[in-house]
Design a protein that fits this description.
0% of the residues lie in helices and 47% in strands. The protein is an all-beta fold and 129 residues long. The protein has a domain of 84 residues: Jelly Rolls (Sandwich), CATH 2.60.120.10. β4 and β5 form a beta hairpin.
Length: 129
Amino acid sequence: MADYTKHNLNDVEDAAPKFGLDEVGEARFARGALEQERSGLSLQRLKPNMRQAFGHKHESQEETYVVLGGAGRLKLDDEIVDVGPLDAIRVPPETIRCFEAGPDGLEFLAFGEHPDPEQPEMITGWWTD
């Protein structure tokens, strides 16, 4: 019998309310639910015209983002790029990144390796207009 884990991402706990970020959107981190040992996956939904509350970067974790729906912008260090459905963006560990939704909101998946016990470095107030 094959060894696998199946879980619907809509059934994964939304972590945004725990951090007071539910007015911005949803953050569903599926690593535990999928019993992932070396990788991570999250479903992120930003409400219309909302920006993530902070930028972040990693010490050694490369991430790939895939936009599922909506559109918006992604700030990568000092560069801002437009993103839309099925855009896939690879981001190296040391690059600060932050998403901003357009008028229709933004839904994307984030994939990455998960080198324990590394935690991302959060950078608040980094993306200012």
